[in-house]
Structure formats: C-alpha cells, structure tokens
C-alpha cells in the first residue's frame, strides 16, 4: 500500500525555538506552534487551538533559531512523525510531531516608535528555507 504524508500549518510560535546540535554536528531546532480554528456553532462564534510540536533540521534550524521568537507567525510545510521511546523506569512513550521540510517566516509585529525593542527585525532576503532531510 502506498502512503502519503504531507502537512501544511500556519500558526504562531508558542515558545522561542530551542537550537541544539546532534553529536555529528547537525543543527536541530524545536518549537511549538499554535494553530487557531474559528467556526460558528449555532449563533456563537467559537475558536479552538491545536498545539503542535515542530522539529527542523540543518541550516533551516539555525535560521529559525536566529530569526523566530515566541508569537511570530510561521508557515510549516512538512510531514507527520511519531517518535517512540522508553523511559528509564521502563514505561513506553510516544508523541507525534511535525518534521518541517520548509519554514516560511510571517511578517513580524511592528512596534511603536520610541518603545524599548522598537523597530522591525529584518529577515534575510529569502526567508523561506528548505530543510535537509534527516530522519
């Protein structure tokens, strides 16, 4: 049977990216993404939020660590992955996460002039990055 695994998400970072390196030196960034969904139920406007863990590898991970922060908008194009492990006390654990193949940075929120931290941070010219495939 042939499978297809593709996911595209647009949301806001729930925390700053955590950048680390594998023993072989490959950069890896992890962050959370909140994806909002608005819908109408009867006469009420409702909203639900889905929280998703994102993993990014390679040069793209370094760019995410440098240019993204909590609250920023990001477009994630990737695949769903389930990780399984066993804890020190022998319990089996698993979790789903999205491995990003590309991350596109959304516009930064503009600060009011004169405020501390004011001004807009500039992204590099091309702010969509393709990930090297590490699985």
Pick out its properties:
135 residues; mainly beta; 5-stranded mixed beta barrel; 1 helix; globular
Overview of the molecule:
It is built from one helix and seven strands, in the order ββββαβββ. By secondary structure, it is mostly beta strands. A five-stranded mixed β-barrel has the order 1-3-4-6-5. A hairpin with a 5-residue loop joins strand 5 (73-86) and strand 6. The longest helix is centred in the middle third of the chain and has 9 residues, at 59-67. The model is unreliable at 114-121 (pLDDT under 50).
Give a brief description.
The chain is 7% helix and 53% strand. The chain is mainly β.
Strand and helix map with partners:
Elements: E1 7-13, E2 18-21, E3 27-41, E4 44-57, H1 59-67, E5 73-86, E6 92-105, E7 128-130
Parallel strand pairs: 4-6
Antiparallel strand pairs: 1-3, 1-5, 2-3, 3-4, 5-6, 6-7
Helix share, percent: under 10%
Give Rg in angstroms. Answer: 17 Å
**Which term fits the overall shape?**
globular
Strand order of the largest sheet: 1-3-4-6-5
Low-confidence parts, pLDDT < 50 over ≥5 residues?
114-121
Written as H for each helix and E for each strand, in order along the chain, the element string is EEEEHEEE
Instruction: Give the overall average pLDDT.
Output: 85
Total number of beta strands: 7
Strand content: over 45%
Q: Count the helices. How many?
A: 1
**Quaternary organisation of the protein chains:** single chain
Structural class: mainly beta
N-C termini distance: 21 Å
| Biggest sheet layout | 5 strands, mixed, barrel
């Amino acid at each position: 049977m042939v499978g297809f695994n593709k996911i595209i998400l647009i949301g806001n970072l729930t925390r700053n990216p955590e950048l680390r390196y594998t023993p072989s030196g490959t950069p890896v960034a992890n962050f959370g993404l909140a994806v909002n969904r608005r819908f109408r139920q009867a006469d009420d406007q409702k909203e639900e939020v889905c929280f998703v863990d994102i993993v990014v590898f390679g040069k793209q991970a370094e760019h995410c660590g440098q240019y993204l922060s909590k609250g920023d908008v990001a477009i994630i194009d990737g695949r769903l992955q389930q990780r399984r492990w066993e804890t020190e006390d022998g319990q089996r654990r698993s979790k789903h996460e999205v491995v990003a193949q590309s991350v596109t940075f959304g516009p930064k929120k503009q600060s009011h002039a004169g405020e501390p931290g004011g001004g807009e941070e500039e992204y590099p010219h091309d702010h969509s990055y393709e990930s090297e495939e590490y699985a």
